[in-house]
Each structure stands twice: as structure tokens, then as C-alpha cells.
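Protein modeling request. Please complete all fields; requests missing the sequence field cannot be processed.
Requester role: graduate student
Desired output: 3D structure, C-alpha cell encoding
Chains: 1
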Amino acid sequence: MLLALVAGITVTIVAWGILVLAAIDFGRDARAGTGESWVLMAGATLGAVACLFLAIIFAAKLQARVKSTGPRTAVEPETASPEPSSPPLDADDTATTEVDDEGLPLPQPAPYASRHSNTVVDDDHADTEDSPAAAYRGKRAKR
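Delivered output (143 residues):
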């Protein structure tokens, strides 16, 4: 199969070269005044394009075939990355979570980023006066 692809590439490249030279010759004749040479030049040009297209297709098939028959290498399995651990609790923080009727923990709201700084503000401290989020109350500025 590899030999057939190499032969196909060779034949189509040689045919492409011959058709390009023929198109050049027909183009010269057409400029000299022969009307039928325009048709022959167009045919040779389209044939050259088709040959080059086939050569590219054969080359892609050859490359895929060579890659698939290349030497096999052992692939190491990907190790699962460990889950990131949660940050340690401060002395005043507690690990209490609310549970539903079945005893499963309820999802906790995620902390949000303040509009006025790059720090993350959690909901417990968002309403204090020294918080950056406390400055913005959602009202429009008077004009």
C-alpha cells in the first residue's frame, strides 16, 4: 500500500508538471491569435490543478499510513491530580453547615469579588461599613 501511494504521488506530480508546461505553451499560442488554444490552455490548467490536488491527497494518506505504522511507544497513564485542600479555618470561623431533611449538606453560596478591589468578600462581612462593597448600594448617581 505504501508503494502504491508513493507511485501515485510520483505519477500525479509528473503529470502536473507536463500539464503546466502544456498550459504555458497553449497560452503563448492563444496570445498569438489562435482561438482554440484558449480552450486547450484552460483544460491543461484545470488538469494541472486536479493532478496537484490528487498528489496532496495521496501525500496526506501516505503520511497518515506512515504515522500509524510507526514504532509503538509506551504511554504512561495520567495520574489523577489531588483535589485541592480547603484552607484552614481561623479561630473565629466554624465548620457548621446547614443540612436538609435527609441530613445532606446544603450548598453554600460562593464568595463574590468586590467591584472596588481585587479582594474576595464573603457574605458575612459584606455589609460592614469598612467593606469595599458597602460603598456601593446599587443606586444611580444623581446628575
